[in-house]
Specification:
It is a single chain. This protein has 163 residues and is α+β, with helices and mostly antiparallel strands. Helices cover 20% and strands 40% of the residues. Strands 1, 2, 3, 4, 5, 6, 7, 8, 9 and 10 form a ten-stranded antiparallel sheet that branches. It is globular. The model has no long low-confidence stretch (mean pLDDT 94).
Length: 163
């Protein structure tokens, strides 16, 4: 399932996350391990898991290392500890769509829709790959209720360049 793309303005959102660099191959196993680590950290501190949890792509290089962050949106500032550090998802206009099962298809659909509609991403060339101000995949399905990732609803969001 791939939903219809939409554009919406979002306020700045606070987050807690673990950032790492990993090859694209094996990325989702790394994501899953980081989700387990972050959920444990959140539960140990008895924080609200209202979330959602997300995967943020800071720098993308499909044939090399990917700079990613696994995080959780939080309602207030929280002090970081160890690998878990506070972050900010910046305010601005975002293009997004919701998909399940097929992340690559969802990404291709949103990118094609943006191209057809003359939408430019808030991105820049980086020596390590394509850097994005904010590109996330937010996990809308509660993992405690549905453990099968193939059934999750995921919101893909990419910040649009300011005019």
């Amino acid at each position: 399932m791939i939903g219809e793309p939409a554009i919406a303005h979002r306020p700045e959102r606070l987050s807690m996350g673990i950032r790492t660099v990993t090859p694209f191959r094996g990325l989702f196993a790394v994501r899953d391990a980081l989700l387990v680590e972050l959920r444990r950290w959140v539960r140990e501190r008895q924080l609200d898991e209202g979330g959602p949890y997300f995967l943020r792509y800071h720098v993308i290089d499909m044939s090399g290392p990917m700079d990613i962050e696994v995080g959780l949106m939080v309602p207030r500032h929280i002090t970081g500890e160890g690998r878990v550090q506070p972050g900010i998802l910046p305010a601005g206009k975002y293009a997004s769509l919701i998909y399940s099962r097929y992340g690559m298809r969802g990404n291709k659909a949103l990118i094609a829709w943006a191209r057809e509609n003359g939408i430019s991403w808030d991105r820049w060339d980086d020596p390590a790959g394509d850097a994005f101000c904010c590109q996330t995949e937010s996990y809308l399905t509660d993992y405690r209720l549905e453990p099968r990732k193939s059934k999750w609803q995921v919101e893909l969001s990419i910040k649009i360049a300011d005019p």
